[in-house]
Amino acid sequence: MALGAEMDGPIKFEVHEKEVFSSKLVSIKDSKIIDILVSVVSYVAVFITATMATRKERKGSYDVRRMAKTLTDNILNFKYTTIEKATGS
Questions:
Q1: Which of the residues in the chain have pLDDT under 50?
Q2: Whole-model pTM?
């Protein structure tokens, strides 16, 4: 029985050691997953912010083009007599 008692101790220790090691692996895997998720979410946030800024810049330039076209169209719609009266010729 002394021999069996001695074997119970190391076997239990090895099982406990494996559980601790496997729990460390799980925590390492969890931290890697969290790191990956945080990096993906950060990348998506930066991409969306850059896209929104680009759209805002393009919208501004489009407004300027549209305004210039409107002014040009309106100026060209004046009658010649109206321009003569306005300039005093």
A1: 1-2, 4-5, 9
A2: 0.41
25: Cα within 13 Å, side-chain hemisphere: 6
Q: What is the 3-state secondary structure (H, E, C) of the chain?
A: CHHHHHHHHHHHHHHHHHHHHHHHHHHHHHHHHHHHHHHHHHHHHHHHHHHHHHHHHHHHHHHHHHHHHHHHHHHHCCCHHHHHHHHCC
pLDDT in tens, 23-34: 666 677 778 888
Q: In residues, how long is the chain?
A: 89
Q: Whose CA is closest to 49, among 63, 57, 38, 64?
A: 57
